[in-house]
UniProtKB/TrEMBL annotation:
Listed SMART domains: Alpha_L_fucos
Pfam family, one: Alpha_L_fucos
Family statement: Belongs to the glycosyl hydrolase 29 family.
One function term, GO molecular function aspect: alpha-L-fucosidase activity
Protein's job: Alpha-L-fucosidase is responsible for hydrolyzing the alpha-1,6-linked fucose joined to the reducing-end N-acetylglucosamine of the carbohydrate moieties of glycoproteins.
Domain named Glycoside hydrolase family 29 N-terminal: residues: 41-388
Source organism (scientific name): Sphingobacterium zeae
Protein name: alpha-L-fucosidase
Enzyme category, top tier: hydrolase
Amino acid sequence: MINYNRLMTPSLLAGALLAGKTVSAQWTEPRKKVEQRIDVKYGPLIPAHRTDEAMERFRTYGLGQFIHWGLYAIPGNEWEGVSARKGAAASEWIRTWSGPTAPKDWKNTYDNLYKQFNPKGFDAKLWAKQAKEMGAKYLIFTAKHHDGFALWPSKYTDYTIKKSPYKKDIVKQVVDAYTAEGIDVFLYFSILEWNNSNYMGKTLCTPEEKAKFNKFLEYTRNQLLELLQNYPQIKGFWFDGTWDQSWIQSYDFTYKLEKELREKHPGLIIGSRFRNDEFGKRHFDSNGDTLGDYEQGWERKMPKEFEWLEGRDWDCVMTIPPNGWGYMKDWSGIYTKTSDDLIDMLMNCVSMNGNFVLNFGPDGNGRMHPGEDKLAKEIGDWIKINGEAVYGVRHAGLAPSKLGYFTQKEDNLYLTVFNTPVNNIVRIAVPKNSAEVPVEAVLLQNGQSLALKRSDIGLDLDKNTYYDVVLPATFSADKAFVVKMKLGKPKGQSDQLMNAKM
């Protein structure tokens, strides 16, 4: 058995504790550049910008589906008439509910919900079919959330689906059904476990605490290796719950564990949340290098500018209600995102080389919320027409447009228009020194050719020239639409007029 239990020296531990106070799992601005590199022993295990088949496929996904499902689907974000809006914790965090609004002996009540978990309406094939119709290319599925309840019959705990009335392996059904539909599967795995007596979220101080947590570490390793063995079709892990000091202290263990997981499953994709370096730096090590295959900090948000990403792969995971991951019975009185909102976010994301992952929270019977069914159909209807601008595309390198978002695939440029111009002229700004410019244009939805002309506006010191795509006078749209342009060599240069004397 590999010994993963060496912990930090006191001096490094102090540094990690200091760093841990300021390290966040998410961010909303560009990262500060590291001014001076230092020696980091527990930095990235793999080179940046992998080019193997699995990672290149990841870059083509465009749209994914996240599913949060577990015991928390039974309460559905409320208990005995008290919802998160009246004091309860959020759906998937509801076990942490405390204070005057919490039911008596609530944690014990929650921990025994497995005795009634019997989702008779669950059909993984229906889920997978819906996801395919929506246009999802990959799934992230919660094999185990923070409550510690495993949706597969793990050999390493009794707190699993096998002990429920349902009994059957949910993870296997999901992996098999989605794989059969051609959708890649990633498993969400929470390190944090509220139900596990060996888990501690604090700094480990005594030999007894360290010995106890070492048992938890070995248990975690066993479960992850078990998942790889049981479901070899999976493409990666999406880790969560890695922010506590106990895990941050265990950097030697996590470094070796990542190495072992990659050796057991060549091509495995792991996001930046899994571990930290010896100085407590999460997501990125102390030199600013990504600790994983892609940047995993964009949760319910996106970078404002492409340059913030500095060329890194990334995904954005997004909810439909404001912060609803697990099932929410009641959507009334809160804003829930429309298909227009979500398509806008999708195209913003893929225009910056990211994948957009939309979350669904099935109920305790295994059925999607009716609102999710409606959105899945509307998004799918749009994707069927406009998917060419979504899948396998890259950042176009043009200045952002007020009309929508650019994506590019080889010599095809796409502009997904959300703001239809009142004069029906879709104007594209292209740098004057560009070797490729729009030479043809069509409406993607029906292939109709569109008039295209160069327009030299004549702004002083302007570095761009402009190409106008003219929409038909009768054109109207009630959803975003895509203008597809073929790129080619410019046919001429702008006339040089007299410059103003200033």
